[in-house]
Amino acid sequence: MKINIRSSFFFTQQKVIFKNKFTKADMKNIFFFFITAIISQLTFSQNGINAIKPGEIWPDTEGNHINVHGGGILFYKGTYYWFGEKRLPLSEKDKSLYGVGCYSSQDLHVWKNEGISLRVINDTSNLLQPGCLIERPKVIYNKKTGKFVMWFHHELNGQGYNAAMTSVAVSDNITGPYKYLRSLRPDAGVWPVNFPEEYRKSSLKESDLKRGSEDWKKAVKEGLIVRRDFAGGQMSRDMTLFIDKDGKAYHIHSSEENMTLHFSELTDDYLDFTGIYYRVLPGDSNEAPALFRRKGKYYMFTSGTTGWKPNPGRVSVSEKISGKWTPLGNPCRGTDNENKVTFNSQSTNVLQVEGKKDAFIFMGDRWNPENLADSRHIWLPVEWENGNPVIRWYSFWYIEKLK
Asked: What is the mean pLDDT of the chain?
């Protein structure tokens, strides 16, 4: 409901004369005064002049909690589109309603549910069948083809997290429906660009080591899993997409048993891999990557690998996307307990607010593994400390105040 602020303002200017006895006219003026105050507050809320409240229920225009998780946001023709995992409520037994959800907003406050952009396929011969896992979907727009391209982490029905695949879908319309194309493991039969020759020639095998031991970790850092998965393609779990300033797109994912990040270059149409990829922070056990660029440098938020449980956040920096990434430590600036769990969240995306020069938002998820549809959104402004990105906890804050 839209209210005319000017009409409301007129009512707030009516004089109320306080005296021992009130006439009916006085009571009417008082009534209009309080009603107008409420209406004005609602009006400002509808216009986006209200607070972001991390961790609270965030209702859409229908009053339902926004059900997109592990997602990202694409700005297109004056509107923000928020894609993410549409998790099934505990009461929902129909697994065919699972997929990638989409919401739209003009102001990043008020969100309209646009429905399911990509739905699982009711066909047991299809890899995208009910019961599979769709995680961390991201959508980018290809200016050359005019297509919207979606990639996501895909695990097969009944296989837990063993498949470690990524999938691609495409649409002519930003809200979908998206056509599922295929699932795969990236970069089969190709060595990483920054993979030393001695790593390629090593004869050390996984069966020679105890998984999780220090010797195993050292061997992973030196390419053990890359060699193991060379023929069939590299593992791809937590992921994001990033378009560089030259229009080249990258698929960034947790690989090598979640021990190393891979930055894989996408083809010009964004629908496949070129075979050019880089190992980033090898052996450091990162997931939940979220990249952004500021003043010629690239920054990346990540987390450790502790499943649904939160852990200390991490941030890294590089002069070029394919270059050496340098860890900067924990970006959180809170209490010791808050810093240990990234304000009880895990990174998923960094959004640059359109029209603002230096306004970035850390987007995270506060996972509720008992009811994933009820997982909460943790949005916090990215601030700067000695030239490095940091995040602080605010129980409420205003996008309008970002510069």
From this structure: 90
